[in-house]
Automatic annotation (TrEMBL):
InterPro entries: Aa-tRNA-synt_II, aa-tRNA-synth_II, aa-tRNA-synth_II/BPL/LPL, Asp-tRNA-ligase_1, Asp-tRNA-ligase_1_N, Asp/Asn-tRNA-synth_IIb, GAD-like_sf, NA-bd_OB-fold. GO terms for cellular component: mitochondrion. GO terms for biological process: aspartyl-tRNA aminoacylation. It comes from Culicoides sonorensis. One of its GO terms (molecular function) is nucleic acid binding. This is CSON007057 protein. The keyword Endoplasmic reticulum does not apply. Belongs to the class-II aminoacyl-tRNA synthetase family. Type 1 subfamily.
Amino acid sequence: MNGLLCKVVNRRTILSFCRSEGNFGILSLNTNEKYNERIVTSHKLDTRNQGAFIMHGNNKRQRNSFIDFYTPPPPPDVLSVKCGDLWQGYLGMYVRLRGRIVKARLGRFLEIRDSRGIAQLVADDDNPRMLRMFQSIPIDSYITVYGIVRSRLTPNKSIPTGYVELHVEDIRDVDYPMDENGSGPNQRRRLNTSAPAAPVSRTVTSIEFKKINGSKGLLDRLNNRLTTCGELRSIDVGKHVTLVGWIDRKKHGKFLHLRDGYGQTQIVIDNENPVIKQTVAAINADSFVLVKGHVVSRPSSNKNTAFETGDIEVLVEEFQMLDPELPYDGPILPQNQVQSETEPMDIANNTVETSQQQKSAPKTPKVNTFTNRTHTCGELGDKDIGKEVVLCGWLEFERMRKFFTLRDGYGCTQIMLPDDLGEKLRIETIPFESILQVKGTVMGRPPGMRNETMATGGIEVILSDLQILNKAKSKLPIEIREHNRAKEPLRLEYRYIDLRFSDMQKNLRTRSKVLMKMREYLINHAGFVEVETPTLFRRSPGGAQEFVVPSRKPGHFYSLVQSPQQLKQMLMVGAIDRYFQIARCYRDEATRPDRQPEFTQLDLELSFSDRDKIMELIEKVLVNCWPDFCGALNTPFPRLTYDQAMADYGTDKPDIRFAMKLIDITQAIELNPELKEGHKNFGSSAVLIKFPHSSLPNQLKENLNNIAKQYPKTKFVTSKIVPDVSQWIEGGLTRLVGQDVTKALSSELHLEDNDLLLFAYGDKEQSQLLMGRVRVAMRQSMEVRGIYTPDTSFSLCWVLDFPLLSEGEKEGTFESVHHPFTAPHPDDMHLLHAQKDLPKIRSLAYDLVLNGQEIGGGSIRIHDPNLQKLIIQDLLKLDITEFNHMLDALRSGCPPHGGIALGIDRLLAIMCNVESIRDVIAFPKGFDGKDHLSKAPMPITEAEKELYNIEIKVPEKVTEKVTETGNSSSKSAEITNTSLNESGTDLIPVFKDFLETRLRKY
């Protein structure tokens, strides 16, 4: 290797430019004087590069050599060093320093300090840009610099770093000092610091409130401070601060610990100042002091990692003991704006709703008027600190005999007992859920005790007086603990306790708000009239099973209305052209999670309208009442015809949030004529699951087979495309449907290896219904297995053009798909008058579907009495005399009209994301329509039977069995034949009664 000595950088490093076998490079001989070591480093250069680089022994810095090459060097490796650790071992290295500027000299020298010590920075004379930067950065700024470590020409032996200096090549992250108001030329703060963010709250805490002992002057001073003792960090070094607190500890005479409700800070006093020294000597544990000074870094040996402020201390410039009797005369800070009457608290959403966000009324009711409280337990916050308040609620929790939580329907608040009241009240002896009234002062919680998960987690109330309004019994049947909910039968039996849970409070308050906004829009914006219609009416043939109510007239009964249908149509005749009501309806049907024997619906009707206008009205009603926590609704809602919904989704209430639409494979299946034999209306639908999501767990397979058994006019097939498509065509499915069918399926569906094909064939309607349920079951299974994330969005759609009639149980009979008053589609009137192909006649009915559940249904009504008579008498074969009152009304001049009813319970259940509508009803019925709370239905007395002329006749196959439970009795019947519930399980009612009784007992 041929070498040429080029340059001596310093006494430790010798560089040579070398050439060996046609390759150019740099050789660096690095001598470490301290350890008497030699480190030789060579760096090979590509001959295509016209440049050379210096490589030092520690490989920490690369720079252009003295030879004038043109290609820039690669990015250097940077060594981060503390200011106080800079010594001769770093000579020639490229390092990074960060610290606070403490001194500037001659426009080209800066001294910066960090927790380890001081280092000198130099701007070279041949770098005018760096000289200007040195001269423009003020003292106390934090800077990050990069440069080369070199020896000082004149060493400073008084400091450890006095033999070296850093020749700066780059300055980054300049953080300028800020004044007390937080203003400064550069607002970039807290960069590259490991300290946690300081607390933003500076409100008076309970500890401070207790310490000031009622002093108004000290309270005002604390409320108007700019800095607390617990928020100072290393990034605040150089900042001038004013602190208020008490001396917690004296240390070596010169160092004191200043504490407030947010933490503590070490302060350093000047013992040579006689005024400060005399003041410090006079203070005691109860004294409040005011301290002004500058924040500085502590020496590394004096850092205290036990405290968040352990990296800094405050050099005291002014020290003053505060007189608690004197009023505060300093600057007043703008306080948090108190919540205005026009910016109400949205209890259902637990958010503050501004007037711009409100969609309806500009004011909210004042929930504390006409009561003995000043605030609810869910509304207190930092804005209320210092206020005297009165709260009423339930004792929820107690701890340490010093704190307890008071809860009402709006939230909960922590109450703190002063030491003098703790022993007197003995809060631990008061049973949970007792009703209390407390008086006290609102204070901020100390930083470590703030609970961000609570709306009132930033404050607590210092108790001054407590009154027990009603002491609860020591052991309740239900504990109000969110993590340990009772089973539903017990919840329904003690519903008055269950309603105290936060989710029930939210659900019922959301319900109230939604109904209010529905009313507000319909009355104030759309001019509707709310009319109450009778609950006691006459039976309506052709609808759901009704509850009968005996009258004193022998043999005569009322019926509870299953809907106000006939009554609201007669309102249209009476010129109440825009009617609505929140109606209670009753149907004697089996109870399900989405059904109750009594339920609520938004019922409306309007004259001189059509289908499109009514649907537009409902969309506006829903947009107006839709809760903010459910997100925004997009209108108009998608529209599907009944035939389209059945073909694509296999149901008239489709969940359109996910695809996986049904595929019509009728033509492919019909290639085998044997498969369609015996079916008058043949059809086949399929669901295709693409690989790799095509697994079919055994439990899912069993569930699908159970679903298929409920559709006896169909055949259900599952087939996985294995091992490949060609072999699948020749495989087992061919023996079932034929090779022509499998080839057609492969071609039409573009099947691939490992796909999963599920299909049904037979009766067209049953095949669609079966595959619609299979579609939903497959999606739910994939969500459970984590293949898909459950979709919690809200998707509404309209389903139109329902059939007017459906075939009845007896051959040749028909039933109304909706009700007998639904108008037929005008395009199908020729079929109606000819009475041909009656199942093909469409109606002007429309359903509203939300996430696969029907939440509303309506139609344009028949206003022609002759057409109404034709449908009731000739097509439905109903007794026309049952409808004489309706026909007379139509003959009296009835305008064209239509309407709709929205199921409030089902709508709210979906909004609140609960499984059952029972969770959005205050007092719902349980299984089989039973009221677990009152034990209804109950037997009546002999006197009542005689009054209403009722004679109870027990069927021969039913024997009554009376069971006693405490002071109440319940009857159950042993029935020989079983009934099938919605899950397909045979249950004997007497067994259900026995099971529920046992659950209540335990």
